[in-house]
Amino acid sequence: MNHDWLFDACASIDPHHEAQALARQSQLTKPPGSLGLLEAAAVRLAALQRNPRPALDRVWISVFAADHGVAAEGVSAFPQAVTGEMVRNFAGGGAAISVLARALGATLEVVNLGTVNDPGEIPSVRRAIIAPATANICERAAMSEVQLQQALAAGAASVAAACTADAQLFIGGEMGIANTTAATALACALLDQPAIALAGAGTGLDASGIGHKAAVIERALARHAAVATPLEQLRCLGGFEIAALTGAFIAAAQAELPVLVDGFITTAAALAAVRINPGVRDWLLFAHRSHEQGHASLLRALQAEPLLDLGLRLGEASGAAAAVPLLRVACALHNEMATFAQAGVSTA
Ligand SMILES: O=C(O)c1ccc[n+]([C@@H]2O[C@H](COP(=O)([O-])O)[C@@H](O)[C@H]2O)c1
Ligand SMILES: Cc1cc2nc[nH]c2cc1C
Q1: Which domains does the chain show, CATH number per domain?
Q2: Which is the closest atom of ligand 2 to the Cα of 78?
Q3: How confident is the model at residue 275 (pLDDT cuts 50, 70, 90)?
């Protein structure tokens, strides 16, 4: 199976633009470092965009939806039919991400990779159906080699569309009942952690539900214990939408398009992307710390410091979208504040 493109090089951070942006931050009328992560974010965007005046006027959001065979193990608080129903809601404009995309003036693309309760053709939804759902990871690999390749390519296709639209930032989101089970299993494999350390409430399980979910994840991990590479871990334990996100993040880094990572599931996909192609890491910014149990461990493994910690656990790119105004403010401060010399303010 040809996964060769996944390993193609990503550009590293432009040292000239990074140094220029750092120098500018040190000249703006504020004590050095006093704007904290807003400074760091603006410097990172200036370096990634190779632009002394970074901008986020054109934000692209792709939400990948897919169903999971492991839902049959009773690991979610909600029925599987919700995935397909939410695809219709995304398109109809009533979902959280629909509202956020409108409020931001961002482009929202919805990609259906396979839902058991298939909403069928919807004009604004890209159909990239791989199968109604992945296989149950307790019994066999979630995806075949061909399905993995299709999912990775679906993510890369979204990035190609974002590049055609001249996007300045790529946000990936997901929707899939039971996908916190798949993402947790993948995270456990990538981080070599037991299920009980990373399993969380997902859509709202109680303590006994989380215990059952952790046992299901342990069965999946035991079933795929021999799997060693991150790509195989993604194929055996992940999901269509998780693999699409991994493909999208790798393709975005290769296309020099900065990425804003959302919550728990997207961060598991991001860690898989970085394990497959370490050059991806430079292109990732992190929006928020999800309420989901395992998110902090994933962020730590990526040495990521997210902008927000609001107790969000919705997914569908909502946390990343909520952080865009903050990144826009970071750019405005970087671009428009007066320097000490311009304002006639004394330096330390
Ligand atoms: O992004 C997160 O951090 C997050 C945390 C918990 C749940 N979710 C969303 O909830 C769904 C998965 O939850 P579950 O309980 O069905 O595995 C899926 O559609 C995700 O978008 C998302
Ligand atoms: C209603 C609903 C909306 C969601 N959006 C992302 N995950 C979700 C899970 C549920 C259950």
Answers
A1: 56-326 (3.40.50.10210)
A2: 11
A3: very high
